[in-house]
Amino acid sequence: MKRIFTLLLLSLLCTSPAMALEEQNISSFMQTNIDLATTILRDKKIQKTERSEKLFAIFDLIFDYNLMAQLAIGGKQWSSLAPEKQVEFTKLFEMKLKNSYMEKLDLYTDEKIVIKNLEKIKDTRIHLTTHLMKNSEVYEIIYKFYKDKNGSWMIYDVDILGVSIIQTYRTQFADILAKEPFENLLERLKKPDELTPKKQ
Amino acid sequence: MRFILACLLSVSLLSASNIKYLGSDLQSNGDLEAEFNTQNSENLFDPLSGYNEIMTSINDHFYEYLLRPTAQGYAYIVPEMARHGVSNFFENLFFPIRFVNNLLQLKLHNSWEETERFVLNSTMGILGFRDVAGEELGIKAHDEDLGQTLGYYGVGSGFHVVLPLLGPSNVRDIVGLVGDAWLNPINYINDNDPDLFNSSGESLAVTAFYIVNKTSLHVKEYDSFKKDAIELYPFLRNAYESRRNKLISE
């Protein structure tokens, strides 16, 4: 009986995936995954949907979409939401992030991405700086990691040329919620192309 | 016993499904919250927000209906290599702006590299059409403008202003734009009078050409970037201000 209880207890503790990204592995892990991702992107034979599925399989491991959603809407707003709304919002936000990422895939030609620097900001924060080279120009992309409660390092924000993805959404959400009810925001997230319909 | 086990099991399953969304994340995220709170729109000073929103949508329409079609038509006629050449030519022309502002920020090494670039590209690069210095010798341009110089000396950005045609800016950067205009060779074409307010039609035409050429090289990027917006004005405002802060800190 005792064993069953310990097993149950263990299963309770281990609700999160078993993989934990350790600090010393971040650079090599990211380099491997970036290389893998660029190989997938270069392979023009793979269909677009299949390609994004493969890529998301990589990124799902290291992006904390739930936390990103919370940070994007802001703690105050988040805690005022009913649990089912939190779930709905998180799902829509994750889709929005992925859709926007998929859009970017079309732009990819054969840029080189290299890891430049790993900087420990504090005990629970690490910034990984990468450089994307295109037409002799260099674009700086910083992946921001935090140490979650399981001790695994997860990405909570990406900084592109000094612009934080989360901050961009945060200002937009705050602006929308200042004028409109939360339901409208959900509606807008459902229609990603509403604002800029294809005109050609 | 079985009943207790079943209860425990269902509880554990429940918490497993809920924990993802309602876990203790929130409490431990206090400092993550704080990291993003600095630019909260509640304490953002944006007195022109009404005007800015309208101007953003005017600019957006201008881009959608005039600038982009023009740039795409132009790209259809002129091959990409030539357009890169034209872009290089103009960037080379803007050397005085970069040179002076690097100097003003006491980035002497950068000023020197800018001079090297200008000399090399203007001669070996055939009037700047080829970026020889960048491609062959790896001497990169050091983009600095007066807005960044002012920021470097601690001048705050002031409130956000969306300019007609030029797009997002702020009080500090507008002052910078006016200052840089005096260093911009384009404004002196066919103009013996150094008063910029009497600037000739030719200068405007050249500027328009520069913008169309530049846009033609970045149409896809612009479109993809804009698609990320849910609400265009705050999206562009945040992107612009963050980007400028980053450039100033470099």
Structure characterization notes:
The complex is a heterodimer of chains A (200) and B (250). By secondary structure, chain A is of the alpha+beta class. Chain A has a single domain, classed as Nuclear Transport Factor 2, Chain: A (Roll), CATH 3.10.450. Chain A contains eight helices and five strands, in the order ααααααβββββαα. Chain A has helices spanning 2-13, 26-42, 48-59, 65-73, 75-79, 83-105, 165-179, 182-190, and strands spanning 112-122, 125-134, 137-147, 153-160, 163-164. In chain A, helix 4 (65-73) packs across helix 6 (83-105). The longest helix of chain A is centred in the middle third of the chain and has 23 residues, at 83-105. Chain B has 250 residues and is mainly alpha-helical. Chain B has one domain (58-247). Chain B has twelve helices and two strands. Chain B has helices at residues 2-22, 25-28, 30-37, 49-77, 80-93, 95-104, 108-123, 132-137, 146-152, 171-181, 201-227, 232-249; strands at residues 160-163, 167-170. Chain B has a two-stranded antiparallel sheet with strand order 1-2. In chain B, helix 5 (80-93) packs across helix 11 (201-227) and helix 9 packs across helix 10. The radius of gyration of chain B is 25 Å and the shape is globular. Mean pLDDT of chain B is 84; it is low at 7-27. At the A-B interface, helix 1, helix 4, helix 5, helix 6 and strand 5 of A face helix 1, helix 2, helix 3, helix 11 and helix 12 of B. Chain B: Pfam families: MlaA (PF04333). Chain B: Keywords: Lipoprotein, Signal. Chain B: It comes from Sulfurospirillum diekertiae.
